[in-house]
Specification:
The structure holds 2 protein chains of 2 kinds. By secondary structure, chain A is mostly helical. Chain A contains 2 helices and no strands. The longest helix of chain A has 19 residues. Chain A starts with a helix and ends in a 19-residue tail after the last helix. Chain B has a single domain, classed as Porin (Beta Barrel). The longest helix of chain B has 16 residues. Chain B is globular. By secondary structure, chain B is mainly β. In chain B, a hairpin with a 2-residue loop joins strand 4 and strand 5. Helices cover 7% and strands 64% of the residues of chain B. Classes of the chains: A mainly alpha, B mainly beta. At the A-B interface, helix 1 and helix 2 of A face strand 1, strand 2, strand 3, strand 4 and strand 5 of B.
Chain lengths: 76, 378
Amino acid sequence: MIVRMQRILLIALALGCAVAAGGCISIQPWERGRLANPDMQFGGAEALESAEAHATEVREGSSGGFDASGGGCGCN
Amino acid sequence: MRRTSIFLAALAVLGTAARAEANEGGVSFFVRVDSDRTTVVSPRVAAAASFDRDRTTVRGSYMADVWTSASIDIRTAASIRRPREPGQQDGEYRAITEQRDQLDLSITHEVDDVTLGASYYYSGENDYWSHGFAVRSVQELPGNSTTIEEALTYSHDVVGRAGDPTFSRPLDSFGLRLVLTQIFSPDVIAQIVYDGSYRTGFQSSPYRYVGLGGDGLCGGTAVLCVPEAHPATRIRNAIVGQARFAFGSSASAGLGYRFYLDDWGVMSHTARAQIAWIPDRGHTITLAYRFYTQTAAAFYMSVYPNREDILNISRDRELSPMFSNRLALSYQGGALLTEGVTLKFAIAVGGTAFVYPDFVGLDEVYALDTTLSFTLEL
């Protein structure tokens, strides 16, 4: 288990370094129009996805990471 | 808290919205049916209001989760409480209908390049109640191309058992979420997420029984049936990497991957891909695919031997090895009704196939779901 945890931390560190390498990039405000479109958002449309995300999460052994799916059980 | 309190809280949010500078309100409707004889219907209403030159935003939503089920869990539990009569068919078990109510409230406030937020949820059903709290902070780093988010969460659940008012077990969960979002170019944005939690308390199902020996089924040839018993603590870790790529103004693609590991021995991989097409300004069509696979918990066995020295024992298909494939198609559009009033509408249709290679009594589940939503922006 400890080896697996170390592996997780290494993956996180590697991903963090990769993203941090982009930290020196500066995109001007007028260049961000395309990024503001709904299809470029990570959160997605909450009204469209929250119920389905909850229904999926209660049927899998994993949780978290992607978008939040609310609380409670609803373990039908 | 009961439904009257939820209704009053919703009225308070709407009253707040009436004094706001910018408002948003919407309704949505979710329906899911699957081959495990379960139907879920979830209507949801939501409202948001912004103040102080849009620096403060208050959001609230209410969702009902009404489900009718005669799933494998219920059929198995029914076999304990009410032994099958000779000649009785499996399909004759009575379906159960229940309702879960969920209320979400949140507030965010922007101070320069920092956004602070707090949120609360209540979820209640006849045998499970949950209160959840979260605080979060989002900072934009110099250059405004990098965003860092930290969130702390806590939830307190009470697990009950229908028909047994003396049964009450607590479950507490503490969580940490770290998010790093990076804009690489006007067309590429990426994100990594760490999501960890520590849960302590009752994490079994009070309804599930595990058959020892025989075919492992309490309604079958098992020698002995005992209540499910999961460990009292669980540490869960999830790491996500995801990115979006724009191809001109009318198309984009998204990729995402999640690695999950917990100290019960469940390890999973989740891959997501989506392509989006924007045929006209304000209209988006998205096709999304998701693959999920997991290993079993270390203590999970499809059939347990009839021994007394087994500490943890489970009849939970979520802890068995499984994989699933999901495909969904959605449309999001909007229309300007009058000056300053926009109606947004969306519809999504999806199908999921779950496969359980090592779970006695259930091999596959096929599910279909659809969501319809309307949002009015003022």
